[in-house]
Amino acid sequence: MNLRLIFCLLFLTHSLFGQEPSHKRIARHIEKLASDRMKGRGTGSPENAKAADYIASHFKKYGLKPLGTNGFYQSFTAKVRRVVVPDSLRSASNVIGFLDNEAPNTIVIGAHYDHLGEGRQGSSLEKEPEGKIHNGADDNASGVAGLLELAQYFAKNDVKEPYNVLFMAFGAEELGLQGSRYFLNNPTLPLDKLNFMVCMDMIGRYNPERGVGIGGYGTSDTWPAVFKDVTSSVKFFTDRAGNGGSDNAAFYAKQIPVLFFHTGGHPDYHKPTDDTEKIDVVAEEAILKLEIVLLEKAMQQPKMTFTPVQ
Ligand SMILES: [Zn+2]
């Protein structure tokens, strides 16, 4: 093989596969977001705002168009309701980036980036949570890492998909889906142009016995055609319901078809021990590759019709 051919092949390989999800980048994102320095990304904290900045800076790097109300940010006031605290009103933001493929309709890929901070906003399962950093590596630094990897992939793959893609990192999910609900009540693009929404919340603790759960299979009659003949190196199963678990429930309530990716519960859920070293980033990479296959197949289909799940 001559040298020119080798260079040519190297270039091709790089441009075709260079932007595929990578477990090394996934690990870097999770280490950053779930480190003790981020103090659990509690709503209203400076560290929560730092996490939002981290996401926005990556959206910018990938060349996404800001689609918040202040650049990439859509700010709102979140309310702590589950515990009584003097600072129950807290500033929060969604981070919103748009991949404009000049298509008539748009798909949404979302993940929440907030977590429980230092245990002073309710819903911790620790006995005495106050003052303990709830790192939230699985919940939901894993989902944010997935969001960033998918944003990079679709922005850099040199393919103009038949739909636009709205990438959303939601704030204040842990306070009751407040970020996704705020967006849906104050949308920055017309909701009737949304085709479907894909949510990732806790995709870092793959259990080969259980497999990856994919909820929302019953929310459109189109999903069976999308899943047909799809295989993956990770085990997965579908579940018809789309109205529980995370921000997908807010989209479901607006009659938008959804998919919800989740690797299942574990003893560290909503405890200070939900830490980075317990994340299976290699499995997460495989889950994201499965998502890409499903998303690319779904984007070959006409705009979906919503089906309520009984
Ligand atoms: Zn979560």
TrEMBL record:
UniProt-listed Gene3D superfamilies: Zn peptidases
Superkingdom, natural source: Bacteria
Entry's Gene Ontology BP terms: proteolysis
Residue ranges occupied by any Peptidase M28 domain in the UniProt entry: 94-285
One Pfam assignment: Peptidase_M28
InterPro entries: M28_fam, Peptidase_M28
Single annotated GO MF: metalloexopeptidase activity
Entry protein name: M20/M25/M40 family metallo-hydrolase
Record organism: Spirosoma profusum
